[in-house]
From TrEMBL:
This protein's name: MarR family transcriptional regulator
Domain of life: Bacteria
Organism: Jiangella anatolica
Length: 152
């Protein structure tokens, strides 16, 4: 290796993909952690932002993230209710409370600031080009939009 090479020349794309993915995840986890919520809380709060939902609808939305040890997000919904951020509406539906709307707005602001930090110094065109290149690479490796299973 040449000592005058910059970081981009010293490491292949896989290195940068994994590093950036890990750093984005760490930043996002820190933002959610500072608000004392998990990614499941965040997902459910965003779902409920559009209006009341049934437990089945919430589980359907979270299906990709459910695991054998957690076949439903009901405990997370119950936690949101215990915090006063959500409340039952009838026997099978929940909705955000005013406190929940404020909490979600605060978390959304923190997430937006973190996303801004990630893209600092990057133009919109550069960002779009990077995403387009990654999408083409994914397609080259066998990904197809019709088989998109959401986040990996």
């Amino acid at each position: 290796m040449n000592a005058s090479e910059g970081p981009a020349e010293r490491h292949p794309i896989g290195y940068w993909l994994k590093l950036v993915d890990r750093l984005i995840d760490q930043g996002f986890d820190a933002v959610l952690g500072s608000a004392a919520v998990t990614p499941r809380h965040w997902q459910i709060l965003n779902l409920l932002e559009s209006g009341p939902a049934t437990y089945a609808q919430i589980d359907d939305e979270a299906a990709l993230y459910l695991a054998p040890h957690m076949p439903t997000v009901r405990p997370v919904v119950d936690d949101l209710c215990n915090r006063g951020w959500a409340t039952p509406v009838g026997p099978d539906r929940v909705t955000l409370t005013e406190t929940g709307v404020k909490a979600l707005s605060d978390i959304q602001s923190r997430v937006a600031a973190d996303r801004q930090r990630v893209t600092e110094g990057i133009t919109e065109d550069e960002y779009r080009a990077a995403v387009e290149v990654l999408a083409r690479m994914a397609t080259n490796l066998g990904w197809r939009e019709e088989r998109d299973m959401g986040p990996v």
